[in-house]
Amino acid sequence: MSASLGLGIYRCRDVARAAAMAAAAGADWIDTAPNYAQGQAERALAPVLARQPELKMSTKVGFLAPGSRGLALRAGVVAPGTAEAGHCLSPRYVGWQVERSRRVLGRVPEVTFIHNPEHGCRREAMTDRLYLAFLTLEEACQAGLIRGYGVATWSGFSSGLFDVPLLVELAVKAGGPRHHLRAIQLPLSVVNLSPIAQALDGVGVLADAQAAELEVFASAPLHGGAVPDLVTPELAELIRPGSSPAEAGLAVVASTPGVRRVLVSTDNPQHWSEATTVIGQPALPLDTLRKVTDVLGT
Question: 131: number of CA atoms within 13 Å, CB side?
Answer without folding.
Answer: 12
